[in-house]
Specification:
With 288 residues, this protein is α+β, with helices and mostly antiparallel strands. It is 33% helix and 28% strand.
Length: 288
């Protein structure tokens, strides 16, 4: 039997870096939001041992090098039982290397499927602890919705849902190296930080304008000049009617926040003429 699950993309309403941790990771503080751009996963058992991964993108790893396979390995190791042979097929729609947690979301979808069919009594907190062993963004992607993420990203606090709104999301054709940006943070002092408390207050009040005014990603402050197209896309989104725009994660994807659905659709269509990986999206709630 084949089981299916959606893997939702995420955007960062805020992204802050508080400093370097003793374990080598960075201390993060981020307000995260799920959107309805998603990959679709199919999972089934097979007779052969091991986990095989296939996808609609043939260049993605097909074995343990794929984070979806790693999620299965970690899950069954946590249960203390041998893993059955598994086939995982991923129908990719979330762009890769985009700052939208596409791989982490695929891993999270695998974990949700495995819990459902092999350990239905496992508590959400336990599943998120397993997810933290797979990757920093995976616990949030297991949960989804609107949340504050701290630590490496694994310490989660639910927040009031983002008020109904719409997004035009645009990924340039180039990738950005996350280690490269973290290296820039180490060498350049961050002078500005998101108003995280203000963002949370705006969410509590259901104040979309307040949310829009507080979109902020500190990685934008250290982007090398070769990635200037990120800022050109931000300006285009604002010219197309977005009430605010920001880069998500370590980029290069940029999103614009819109009050009006048709305006957001038109903006996404306009950007798609130059950037094929452009999408109209809505916010979605928790996955579990």
């Amino acid at each position: 039997m084949t089981h299916t699950e959606s893997a939702w993309a995420k955007i960062n309403l805020t992204l802050d870096i508080l400093g370097r941790r003793p374990d080598g990771y960075h201390e993060m503080k981020m307000v995260m939001q799920s959107i309805d751009l998603c990959d679709n996963l199919e999972l089934s058992e097979r007779e052969a041992p091991g986990t095989a991964v296939s996808s609609t993108l043939p260049y993605l790893p097909r074995d343990g090098g794929n984070i979806a396979a790693k999620a299965a390995e970690v899950f069954f190791a946590h249960l203390g039982r041998p893993a059955p042979g598994l086939d995982i097929h991923i129908r990719k729609q979330i762009p890769v290397c985009a700052g939208m947690a596409g791989g982490s979301s695929d891993a999270a979808a695998v974990l949700r499927l495995l819990r459902r069919h092999y350990a239905p009594s496992m508590l959400e907190e336990e599943l998120e602890a397993v997810a933290a062993q797979v990757g920093s963004d995976v616990p949030y992607c297991v949960r989804g919705g609107t949340a504050l993420a701290r630590g490496r990203g694994e310490i989660l606090t639910d927040l009031p849902p983002l008020p109904a709104c719409y997004f035009a999301v645009c990924k340039p054709t180039f990738p950005i190296s996350t280690p490269e940006l973290f290296a820039q943070v180490r060498t350049r002092r961050l002078h500005c930080h998101p108003d995280t408390a203000g963002m949370i207050s705006a969410l509590e009040q259901g104040d979309l304008e307040g949310v829009a005014h507080r979109l902020y990603n500190v990685f934008e402050d250290v982007l090398p000049r070769k990635y200037a197209q990120v800022f050109e896309i931000k300006r285009s989104l604002l010219d197309l009617g977005a009430i605010a725009a920001s880069m998500t994660g370590s980029g290069p994807t940029v999103f614009g926040l819109f009050r009006d659905e048709e305006n957001a659709r038109q903006a996404a269509d306009a950007l798609k003429a130059h950037f094929p990986a452009s999408f109209f999206c809505k916010n979605v709630g928790r996955a579990v």
